[in-house]
Every structure is written in C-alpha cells, then in structure tokens.
TrEMBL record:
Gene that specifies this protein: LOC118284117
Main localization (coarse): mitochondrion
Membrane topology qualifier: Multi-pass membrane protein
Cofactor(s) listed: FAD
One annotated GO biological process: quinolinate biosynthetic process
Name of the protein described by the UniProt record: Kynurenine 3-monooxygenase
Entry keyword set: FAD, Flavoprotein, Membrane, Mitochondrion, Mitochondrion outer membrane, Monooxygenase, NADP, Oxidoreductase, Pyridine nucleotide biosynthesis
Lineage, opening ranks: Eukaryota, Metazoa, Chordata, Craniata, Vertebrata
MF terms in GO: FAD binding; kynurenine 3-monooxygenase activity
Organism: Scophthalmus maximus
Domain FAD-binding stretches: 14-313
C-alpha cells in the first residue's frame, strides 16, 4: 500500500549488484513494485556478447524457479523455450537405458539455457526503462562512479564483492567449502539434424566417484557434465588416456561425443571447481541484503542453485508486501525467514553429493528411486520423496529436510519389521511412529548426517 503522504515525490532507488540470473530477476521484481532500479554488472553486456564463458551452460528449472518467473510474468515465455524432462534416463555400464519418472504424468523439470534465460530477464519489459549497465565496479570507497541508493542488493554470485564487506563486520558468520570433485562440460552433437539420444530426459551415468549427466538443448545437442575428483582429472594427460577412461566408464557415450571431439574437448578447459557457501545474517541494517549465490552457493547435486536463488526473490517480495516496503523491518525478517531454508538446501545438496559419490551406481540409483516412488504410491500423503518436495513444491527447504529425517526413520522401521518376517505395517503404525517422533522432535543435527563431515 502506497502511503502517498509520507513519500509523495521521490521513488526509492534500489541498486542491484550483479546482472546474472538472480540480479536480473530481482530487477524485474523491484521494478514491478515501482522502485527506481539500477543494475550494476562488471562483465560485458551478455545481450551483445557472442561467447559467454564460465558457469554451466544449461540448468534444470523446476517449480520454485517457475513460480518466481510467474511473479514477473515471464514463466510462459521461458517455459516455451525450455525442454521438458519427464524422467531420468539411467545408463548402465552395459549401455542399458532405464527411465525413472520424476513424478506423476505431466510433472517434469525443464532444461533451460543459462545465457538465453539471462538475456530474456535483462530485456524483460519490466526493466527496459531502468536498466543501467555499467562497466564500473560498485566500490565502498566510491572510487568509481557513485550513486546513492536506498537499498543495495548483492546478487553478485559465489565470490560476491558485496559479501566481502559483510566479512569485515562483527557477528557475521561465514563458511565456504570446496568439494574434491570438479566438473567438465562436453557436447553431444546432433545426428542427421536430430537428437542423438531421447531428448525429454535427464540422462545420468552414475558410476560412484565418477558421474556424468546430460541435459538437452534446443539446438538438438546435449551438454554433458562429467563430475570427478580433481586428482582423477589430472591423471588423464593424453587423448588416448581420455578414450581409455571413457571406454572403461562411459563406453556408450564415445560414439555420441565422437573420438576426435572427445580427445580435443577434454583438454579445452580445465575442470571447474564447486564451492558451497553459507553465511548469516543476509543483511546489514536497512540498506544492504544478499541473495542467490552471494548468500548461499550450493553444489549442483540437487539441481536447485538457480531455483533457490529465484525463490529468494519471491520470499523477499512477499516480506516487502507484508511490511509495506519498510526496509528496517523487511531486511531482518528476510534473514530470519530465509537463512534456515537456504542452509537446508545447501546441506541437502552436499548430502546428495556425499551419497552419490559413496555408493551410487546405476543399480542402486534405480533401486532407491523405485523404492521411494513405490512407498509414495502406497502412502501418497505420508511418504513423499525428498526430491518431490524439493523439486515440485514450495515446501520450505528446512521443512523438507526435517520431514525427510523422520521419513528415513519410518522407512528403516518398515524395513526392520518386514525383514523380521512381519508384513508391511498398516499405515496407522507409521502415523503413530511419526507422532512419537514429532513429540520427541529432537531433530538430528546436520552434523550427524554424513554431509556434516564435509563442512568441518
Ligand atoms: C547436477 C548438475 C539426479 C544439473 C541429483 C537427480 C544436476 C543438474 C538428482 C547439473 C542426479 C543428481 C535433481 C533433479 C537435478 C534426480 C534431483 C542435478 C540437475 C536428487 C548442469 N537433480 N540435477 N536429484 O533426481 O532432485 O534426477 O549441471 F544425478 S534435477 Cl546428482 Cl529433480
């Protein structure tokens, strides 16, 4: 609600630092609320750039991200440019392919092109009148161009310059963890102008420590992402060794990528690092707030990095509504509400990394997902797979994490009773168990999960 008597003339200025995915989306959100938005970006304007380097090429857009796009009227456009993935396609070592649906019929995630999405967000009709691209860095000492803003929104990624200012302050918590794995992107070209594998799937080659996934692109290529420990990347030094490695772990992909392309592209770029960042609070006073990777970089093993960052924008927008754009109340409330959820998705992604690396081959992956889907089929209200809550709902991440902890106990209980020769317990047993557990509500701390070890 506009209190036109209090501030009738001047629009509040919001400086969004970072013109990446979250910065550009945030600009749309703030413009829609009637703020005077200025976007600062040190890289060249990607709307004119030919090659955009760094960061992964395609991303999995799911419910949370779509909801955020919907708030700024861009969901339909972006969805129409994405490729639906209704299921995973698990590739075994022998080349056998097995699909596992993501959800019920009609539930799917989308493969979207990062640079296309970024361009669309920067040219969205919501922000064309306020976009202020500049090659100067926003510096606290004002040594470059100076602007006065009522609010600074740091959306400048995992290595945020804005967050660096937070680090100098008392009582700011910060941790960052590099995982031992790196990733490398390779391309599967089309064959005779057509996709060379089934397009509407997220293709996965789970091989414990080594893992590859492939997402479809609109130009009928697939972008493969190979995940493996840096020391393994370094062991491979010649083209022949690359082929030998692929022959051993991903033989069915050699003809798809092509021997020559593989030998060449493997050495094109070094493997990229993955970092997980947690911090709190997300704000300073009533003037500065962090969102997206600047607040919480996550490892990519839940496909939620962009989705979580986009959901930050919705949450902030909802709190602005609730407190009439009063930044002195909105900023602390945003920290209070959002930190537990962003920390939870950072933990879940790290946990999935640890789990996949430890014992996820194709058989195990198929088995686990089928068990989850079957239990969900038996008790749709009680046992919801974690990835379903994360991917297809806006269940708060910290609640999804809590629920998953007791569901795991329920499953163990069920497995225990059934291996003792008992039948599947009737659902009220499960309900009782859940009730008891909720009564005790002594949640496992994250450090008790194996992901916790990575943090310490
Ligand atoms: C990793 C890198 C399959 C894009 C996690 C699933 C990912 C993506 C999974 C990347 C996996 C892993 C989920 C989605 C998605 C699965 C998910 C992972 C997209 C638990 C471009 N992950 N990713 N989980 O369920 O919830 O299919 O870089 F291999 S989408 Cl690691 Cl849903």
């Amino acid at each position: 609600m506009e209190e036109s008597t209090d501030r009738p003339t001047k629009k509040k200025v919001v400086a969004v630092v970072g013109g990446g995915l979250v910065g550009a989306l945030n600009a749309c959100f703030f413009a829609k609320r009637g703020f005077d938005v200025k976007v600062f970006e040190t890289r060249e304007d990607i709307r004119q750039a030919k090659i955009v380097k760094g960061r992964s090429i395609n991303l999995a857009l799911s419910h949370r991200g779509r909801q955020a796009l919907n708030h700024v009227g861009m969901e339909d456009k972006i969805v129409s440019q994405g490729i639906p993935m209704h299921a995973r396609m698990i590739h075994s070592l022998s080349g056998k392919q097995s699909p596992i649906p993501y959800g019920k019929k009609g539930q799917y995630i989308l493969s979207v092109d990062r640079s296309n999405l970024n361009k669309e967000l920067l040219t969205g009709k919501n922000i064309n009148r306020i976009l202020h691209f500049t090659a100067t860095v926003l510096r606290s000492d004002g040594s470059e161009e100076q602007i006065k803003a009522d609010l600074i929104v740091g959306c400048d990624g995992a290595f945020s310059a804005i967050r660096k200012q937070f680090l100098r302050r008392s009582r700011f918590n910060y941790s960052q963890t590099y995982i031992p794995h790196g990733y490398m992107e390779l391309t599967i070209p089309p064959i005779n102008g057509e996709f060379s594998m089934k397009p509407n799937y997220l293709h996965i080659w789970p091989r414990n420590t080594f893992m590859m996934i492939a997402l479809p692109n609109t130009d009928k290529t697939f972008t493969c992402t190979l995940f493996m420990p840096f020391d393994e990347f370094e062991k491979i030094t010649t083209g022949d060794e690359v082929i030998e490695f692929f022959q051993k772990y991903f033989p069915d992909t050699i003809p798809l990528i092509g021997v020559d392309a593989l030998k060449r592209d493997y050495f094109h770029l070094p493997a990229q690092a993955m970092v997980s960042v947690k911090c709190s609070p997300y704000h300073i006073g009533d003037t500065c707030v962090l969102m997206g990777d600047a607040a919480h970089a996550v490892v990519p093993f839940y496909g939620q990095g962009m989705n979580a960052g986009f959901e930050d924008c919705i949450v902030f927008d909802e709190i602005l509504d609730q407190f009439n754009d009063d930044f002195s109340v909105v900023l602390p409330e945003y920290t209070r509400v959002r930190v537990p959820d962003d920390h939870a998705i950072a933990d879940l992604a790290m946990y999935n990394y640890v789990e996949m690396r430890a014992h996820v081959n194709s058989k195990w992956f198929l088995f686990r997902k089928h068990v989850d889907n079957f239990l969900h089929f038996l008790m749709p209200k009680t046992l919801v797979p974690l990835y379903t809550m994360v991917t297809f709902t806006r269940t708060r991440y910290h609640q999804a994490l809590e629920r998953w902890k007791w569901q795991d106990k329920v499953r163990n209980f069920w497995q225990m009773t059934s291996t003792r020769g008992g039948k599947t317990p009737p659902e009220h047993h499960i309900q009782l168990y859940k009730h008891d557990w909720l009564q005790n509500n002594r949640a496992l701390s994250v450090s008790e999960l194996s992901a916790g070890r990575i943090w310490n």
